[in-house]
Design brief:
The complex is a heterodimer of chains A (535) and B (378). Chain A has 535 residues and is of the alpha+beta class. Chain A is 24% helix and 43% strand.
Amino acid sequence: MKTLRALSLSVGLLAGVAQWTIAGNALAYSCPLEKLNARPPIEFKPFPLVNPTSGQALRPDELLDVQPGQQMRADEFINRVNDIESKLNQIGYTLREQTTVTVAELFTCVDLLRQQQDWLARLVDPNAPNPATTAEERLRALESSWEQYKQKIPSWEDLYRRANDASVDVYLPPPPPFTAPVPERRRVEFRPAIKERIWNYEIGEKSKFAAGVNASLRLEATKTETRAHAKGAVTAAVLGKWEGDILAASADAVAPIEDKATLNIQVKAVGRTLWSYPPPGARQEGIGIKEDGKKSWPVEKGVDFRFAIGPIPMKGTVGFRAEAGLHYGYTLVPLHVGAFAGPYAAADAYAQCGVDIGIAGGGVGGQLLLIKDSLTLQGDALVQVVDEPSLTIELTGYNKIEALSGSLYAYGYIDLWFKKFEGRYDFFTWEGFSDEATLFHFKKEWTPSGVTIEGDATAEDIMEVRAQQSEQRLVEIENKTQDNLTNTMTAISAGLSAEDAKRVLQDKARHEAIAGALDKVIKTYWDEIRRWAGT
Amino acid sequence: MNRKWMQASLVCSVVALAGVTSADTSMSPDEYVKREKDAVATYSEANQVSQRYGRYERTRSDLLSPSGLSLRVENWEKASQDWIASWTKVLALADVGQDFSYQEFERVLGQTLSELQGRLAVLEKDGRSIKAEGERLLARIPPNADTYTKLGAYRTVLDLLKQREKELFDSVQTISGIPQAKITKLREIDTVSRQAVLGRLRASLLRVAGHPVEQTVSSLRTFLAAEQIAEPVLIQVTNAEQEMSRYVLNLQVYHAEEASQKSKALCEDGLKTLGQISAPAQYVAGAKTRAKTLCAAIAKQYSELVSYGVPKNDLVREYIEVERAALPTLCKGANAPVQCEKLAVIAALQTQDYAKMNDDKLKFVEYGWAELMGQAKR
């Protein structure tokens, strides 16, 4: 059976918008609902009562299978077919056409559709993501991109490890080497020292009898030598006619750092050289000298003297006889002079006289100790270096004196056979003077750490010590300053080169990277929401 | 001759002369003064450099330490990224399905937006704090004019110090400025995201159909507008209530007093602001009720503190005595030696000392202690 084709309709879908309310404006279009595509009518040709397949005639009451499971009488079926054909023919169509035709349709309101399309275009972006993409998928995409950039952000440990890798260029310039000079320790300078003590001692009247002692001791110490000069003399004066040294001794000692030490001693008495050291022509061997000894000599000096005992003219010799000498001891090694010199003298005054006329006679009487003196000069000058350089100077002068004790007189007489006249002339009478004392004692010890003095220090000595102590304090300040500066700079240099110093720049770079990645996340999200917000 | 006359005419004369010679080549006074001045000037400059390095090292530590500025900024960046990710979830929320219920949607959205507003407020506060901390650190290491006259031999060290200071300055400036630079954008995101929620909701409603799109969108727009006004007020009042709770718990009576005054003004302004919005009615009513409840709680807590009858000097003393126990542990590391010394001075105050203090002094002690503890804990 020919499959009947019913009317076929093609319907254009309208966008299923039940309402359009766009800014309060209603749509302006109204279009018809249906449209009939009529053709010019054609002649009606009924279908006969024959089987369309075999062409044989059909009985009117013959049953036909018109649909699966549905039967119909043949005459009824043909009547219905012809009825449809008639109506089709009126609008120009026939059941006999082989192609599908559009007989009628719902009218497509194109203008309306175009207007709606415009509005839609304003509301939605044609490039908007497919609504079928779920929010979960977008969230996953965002989280994925966040994870990706997080992985690209190096961790601190990674950066540190990479920075230590030899294949990675170091992006920090190496700190310049610490080239500060090694600090020099300042020291108090070693300065040469000279100390001298002089002592002069005199008693009596030179016009009659006088006695005295002269002592001087001078010590010098420098970096290259030590030196001692000692001088002692016992002096006397007789009746204004003579004065001078009963005995004078001087000694010069030099102990240089490298050359041979030298010692020169000279002893004079009443102007004559009695003894010298070294003996003429002698050679001193060795660097050092050690000499000590005791010498003594008799010394005498007299002067003529005229005087009168009343009418008796007298003439005589007045003077002194003395035993004088020298104790000495010297030790000289490089930069060390140890000196001991002790001149001594014991002198008695004497007188011898006679008369100038025959009828008279005369003599002397009494005993007068002119001077008995023992002088000791002792000195040490030493420069040495044990843990630190040091300088020691010590001067001591000691004296024991007894002088002008006793009496000395002359007498003259005239012996008449009935009586005797005797007169005296006193040269000197006094109980005398004696003393035993330390003339001077001074000791100074100097080291770079400080200076000490003891004994009879003068104002100059104290000022010198204070100046050296000030210099000591100044040097301590300078050294402390230098230590502080060096330690500070060393610590600062180490701190500036520490790992944390590199981390400062690393952290800055890391944060710039994180901030940049965050900016990308913000931009991604921003672009997303702007589309939805329609901005 | 008269012997006695002769004796009397004798003149004993003792003449003693002592002589001294010294020789010394000491420094001249001018040389001494010059050397002393040089030494003192050198010592002084060394100390200046030492102090300058100390400030550099302290600032570096404040930047890099586990509680330092760098880690704070990193945490801020993570928090801001999480905040943005949360907004993505809000957009997902607006992608509704067939079972869409506007009431439920508004409720969940409101909760989420409240949380986001709170987190944004924290981000803003932290950003300001980070910026302030950065400025504090930068003030410690200003660019230095190198005027040392005695340290020429250590020029390399001084140049290196200057270079490191500059690196640190640049680093602190850059890192501490990151949050503030992003806050404006986050605020824009907060505003535009709400519009995006509207657009997203409209698109999904159009897709699923069966719901009044424009009415729903309009309701949401009204809700968002109200929420954007109400939420900051509620956050401020909530923070004020939490702050007052903390002060009252710690017996910080002067802090509580000041907070009470500020809260009164805050509550007045806040309720006035809430009074300007009327829709959506249920939401606005809820916000006003919550604000009033919080404001009442603030006032009640303060009045309870001062109504116990305990004198203020006792309250201050109690506050400090409780916190004093933490001092040995806190100051053991000597990370904040200056603050620890000052705290020790305050901790040594006795009961009779507090009894003698007037209001101004007690307030000074309480505020001083709180600030120093905050600095020491950093």
